[in-house]
Specification:
This protein is α/β, with parallel strands linked by helices and 340 residues long. It has 2 domains: 105 residues, Enolase-like, N-terminal domain (Enolase-like, domain 1, 2-Layer Sandwich), CATH 3.30.390; 221 residues, Enolase-like C-terminal domain (TIM Barrel, Alpha-Beta Barrel), CATH 3.20.20. Helix content is 33%, strand content 22%. The chain is built from 12 helices and 15 strands. The strands form 4 sheets. Strands 4-5-6-7-8-9-10-11 form an 8-stranded parallel sheet. Strands 1-2-3 form a 3-stranded antiparallel sheet. Strand 6, helix 7 and strand 7 form a beta-alpha-beta unit. The longest helix has 19 residues. The two termini are 32 Å apart. Bound molecules: magnesium ion. Magnesium ion binds next to loops.
Length: 340
């Protein structure tokens, strides 16, 4: 095998719940090693991928990973023509190729792309669904993070926000994770406006672009697509339906495609958020290198876990501080300190 992989159980600090999914206590990620490059992926069942599908895809892609590993574009094109989909697996490979290339050239990824590391934004910190009092407690525990992202999509969304506003005046992003109907979304957003909400993420069903358009036309808050957008080719159909898109490496297939989405979305006048799954500092730091190009960063997956195997991107008052090391720039933590 050219590519080696390992499955890691990331243990969650708090059980994590969103609108469509029950509570998780741990999430599995797959880390890969290709030559000197490291990559990671966190497959999501919602997008039809699991640890097993990623393992199978890595086996199928392996024979294409023994040539000129500098030619990331050509390799990713080959993988795409070999097997469609499987973007979580492709993302791990793409990430390892970028990490390797940065190490070969001796430069951090942001430098490889000509980006200014001082231009990174602050990341939001996610408050998962729970009893309102427990969500209040999570907000108190998140005192070091200047922006909150609150998961909604319940029968008592307004009550949640009202309760949280008793304990915080920070900017809040709301993510409904597809849970609302278009009319329900318009009504709920109208109720939420007085509570100082910055934006609404994926209010309605991912395939219902007309529904998104209806919500956007009847709401005064920016609407950001997440589940409705995976690849750059999804962007043109979303124009007029949303104000921005949320990019995730495991949805789109890696850094190369993420960069493509950023440029296509900008060409269509859309805002950019870069988000994540529950991932270690490896996957989060890779995505963080793109953040000088985005409007909103939601890169908190590594902050939600108790046994992060790597250190990489840091936060200073919420602002993402990129490591000045070649490639992605993560360092393995001492395993003896990892017992959660
Ligand atoms: Mg989302």
């Amino acid at each position: 095998m050219n590519i080696r992989h390992q499955i890691t159980d990331l243990q969650l600090v708090h059980p994590f719940k969103i609108a469509r999914r029950a509570v998780d206590r741990f999430r599995q990620v797959i880390s890969v090693e290709l030559d000197s490059g490291l990559g990671e992926t966190a497959p999501a069942k919602f997008y039809g991928e699991t640890v097993e599908t990623v393992q199978r895809a890595l086996e199928i892609f392996d024979p294409f990973l023994n040539g000129n590993l500098d030619a990331i574009q050509a390799i990713m094109d080959t993988l795409e023509s070999t097997m469609r989909g499987n973007y979580a697996a492709k993302s791990a490979i793409d990430m390892a190729l970028h990490d390797r290339l940065g190490k070969v050239l001796g430069v951090p990824l942001y430098r490889l792309w000509g980006l200014d590391p001082d231009e990174t934004p602050c990341t939001s910190f996610t408050i998962g669904l729970d009893e309102p009092e427990m969500m209040q407690q999570k907000v108190r525990e998140a005192s070091e993070y200047p922006i909150l992202k609150v998961k909604l999509g319940t029968s008592h969304d307004l009550e949640i926000i009202r309760t949280l506003r008793e304990v915080t005046d920070k900017p809040i992003y709301v993510d409904a994770n597809t849970a609302w109907t278009p009319k329900e979304a318009v009504r709920k957003i109208r109720e939420l406006v007085p509570y100082g909400i910055e934006l609404i993420e994926q209010p309605t069903h991912p395939d219902d672009l007309e529904g998104l358009k209806f919500v956007r036309e009847h709401s005064e808050l920016p609407i950001i697509a997440d589940e409705s957008v995976k690849r750059a080719t999804d962007i043109p159909a979303l124009v007029g339906c949303v104000d921005g898109v949320n990019i995730k490496l495991v949805k789109c297939g890696g850094l190369l495609e993420a960069m493509r989405i950023i440029h296509v979305a900008r060409a269509h006048g859309l805002q950019i958020m870069i988000g994540c799954m529950i991932e270690s500092s490896l996957g989060i730091t890779a995505a963080a290198h793109l953040t000088p190009l985005v409007d909103y960063a939601d890169l908190d997956g590594h902050l939600l876990i108790a046994n992060d195997p790597y250190s990489g991107v840091r936060l200073e008052a919420g602002k993402l501080i990129l490591p000045n090391l070649p490639g992605i720039g993560v360092i393995p933590r001492d395993p003896s300190n990892l017992e959660a």
